[in-house]
From TrEMBL:
Domain spans labelled DNA/pantothenate metabolism flavoprotein C-terminal: 181-389
InterPro entries in alphabetical order: CoaB-like_sf, CoaBC, DNA/pantothenate-metab_flavo_C, Flavin_trans-like, Flavoprotein
Cofactors required: Mg(2+); FMN
UniProt-recorded name of the protein: Coenzyme A biosynthesis bifunctional protein CoaBC
Record lineage: Bacteria, Bacillati, Bacillota, Clostridia, Halanaerobiales
Region (Phosphopantothenoylcysteine decarboxylase): 1-185
Catalyzed reaction equations: N-[(R)-4-phosphopantothenoyl]-L-cysteine + H(+) = (R)-4'-phosphopantetheine + CO2; (R)-4'-phosphopantothenate + L-cysteine + CTP = N-[(R)-4-phosphopantothenoyl]-L-cysteine + CMP + diphosphate + H(+)
Residue ranges of every copy of the Flavoprotein domain listed in the record: 4-174
Coiled coil (residue ranges): 320-347
Pathway given in the UniProt record: Cofactor biosynthesis; coenzyme A biosynthesis; CoA from (R)-pantothenate: step 2/5; Cofactor biosynthesis; coenzyme A biosynthesis; CoA from (R)-pantothenate: step 3/5
Keyword Cytoplasm appears in the UniProt entry: no
Gene Ontology cellular component list: phosphopantothenoylcysteine decarboxylase complex
Residue positions binding CTP: D274, K284, F319, K333, K337
Length: 394
């Protein structure tokens, strides 16, 4: 869905990052209207934003070339405001209700949500006056995007860095998402598990965790309180998600069962090891001239155990990774594990193999099965929630 986003840019060096934010939002099909303060135009020329967004860039409150009352037009048109970077001066004026330029006037006139991403020197950021002003804005319903710690352009190291453009875009995506999972508790597992053989070796699988993380992100953006129990992955924790890192299937089971009782929706997207070494060698196993065989024992099937104790108010969703007889095997898992839904995917297809950014799945329930087309995992995660929310409403 395309939205009208007003990007407010105030006079800080981090304004260069806002160019990328404007570009990324435009590529996502949003209309980005930029308002620059006079100080911001010292760092970046308005034409640069205009070239990226193809929409007007404003900085003056008054104009003699249009009859439109500029600040009211932009204030009414906006679905969302992002002020990035926001200087200490802007924050102080906004908190005091001062309207002495276009940006401070528009934000007083709008009813759209306003997100503020402060960026400044660490001592300025920590100054009690700035902290007080941010708190005041937060209490009034503005969303403050906390700056990151790191190297600052002023030469200091500390908190005050404007987050990366991608993170700011994610904040906007989250804000714009429909909140149809508000107040729901969603527990998701993701990634592979590692079953230790000795201090340097383990058994694992090719799961990247991408599908589980995409589901966690979708649920969080849709307003749910999300706990993500994840095996080792390279992925970043999605915004607003509580990440619980584990290694083995036994650790995963422990963490899942801590949260399972209070969850409204449980999704087992992890590729949990079915076997672990019967004996863990505390010393590194030395190489011998003869072959070595490893005795393995079964791990617990977490989904099956969840199915046995599932409450009627809970939704239990499993995955089925199959290399043959997809629907038949997935149907068996649905019944055997007493899940409400099984999301089945063919892992022998290179498009949907472990690690791929795309996936093609069928969703199975007692009612039958529905095949979804091949798509990016982020998009698929949303489709899966759409499907399940719709099916549960019927
Ligand atoms: N699962 C689980 N605990 C395990 C193994 C699997 O909770 N020890 C869950 C997975 O998270 C997934 C579902 O069960 O949601 C199916 O996993 P899958 O690996 O496809 O099937 P398995 O049950 O392991 O059966 P098989 O390996 O024989 O296909």
């Amino acid at each position: 869905m395309s939205a009208n986003i007003v990007l407010g840019v105030t006079g800080g060096i981090a304004a260069y990052k806002s160019l990328q934010v404007a570009s990324m939002l435009t590529k996502l099909d949003h209309n980005v209207y930029t308002i620059m303060t006079e100080a911001a135009t010292e760092f970046i020329k308005p034409i640069t934003f205009h070239s990226l967004t193809h929409l007007p860039v404003e900085s003056k409150l008054f104009s003699t070339t249009t009859s439109e009352v500029k600040h009211i037009g932009l204030a009414d048109k906006a679905d969302l405001f992002l002020i990035a970077p926001a200087t200490a001066n802007f924050i102080a004026k906004a908190a005091a209700g001062i309207a002495d330029d276009l940006l401070t006037t528009v934000i007083l006139a709008t009813q759209a949500p306003i997100m503020i991403a402060p960026s400044m020197n660490v001592h300025m950021f920590e100054n009690p006056v700035v902290q007080r002003n941010m708190l005041a804005l937060e209490e009034l319903g503005y969303k403050i995007i906390t700056p990151e710690a790191g190297y600052l352009a002023c030469g200091y190291t500390g908190q005050g860095r404007l987050p990366d453009p991608q993170r700011l875009v994610e904040e906007i995506k989250k804000e714009l998402s429909q909140k149809d999972l508000q107040d729901k508790k969603v527990l998701i597992t993701a990634g592979p598990t590692r079953e230790a053989i000795d201090p340097v070796r383990f058994l694992t699988n090719y799961s990247s965790g991408k599908m589980g993380y995409a589901l966690a992100k979708a649920a969080s953006y849709r307003g749910a309180e999300v706990k993500l129990v994840s095996g080792p992955t390279e992925l970043e924790c999605p915004l607003g998600v509580d990440l619980i890192k584990i290694e083995s299937a036994a650790d995963m089971k422990k963490e899942v069962f801590k949260e399972a009782d209070t969850a409204d929706i449980i999704i087992m997207a992890a590729a949990v090891a079915d076997y672990r070494p019967q004996v863990y060698s505390t010393q590194k196993i030395k190489k011998q001239s003869r072959d070595l065989s490893l005795d393995l024992e079964r791990t617990a099937d977490i989904l099956t155990e969840l199915g046995k104790k599932k409450k009627t108010s809970q939704l239990l969703i499993g995955f089925a990774a199959e290399s043959e007889n997809l629907l038949e095997n997935a149907q068996q898992k649905l019944r055997k594990k007493q899940a409400d839904y099984i999301i089945a995917n063919e892992i022998s297809d290179k498009n949907t193999a472990f690690g791929s950014d795309k996936n093609q799945v069928s969703i199975l329930s007692e009612e039958g099965s529905t095949k979804l087309p091949l798509m990016e995992k982020d998009k698929l995660a949303d489709k899966i929630f759409n499907y399940i929310i719709d099916a549960e409403r019927k």
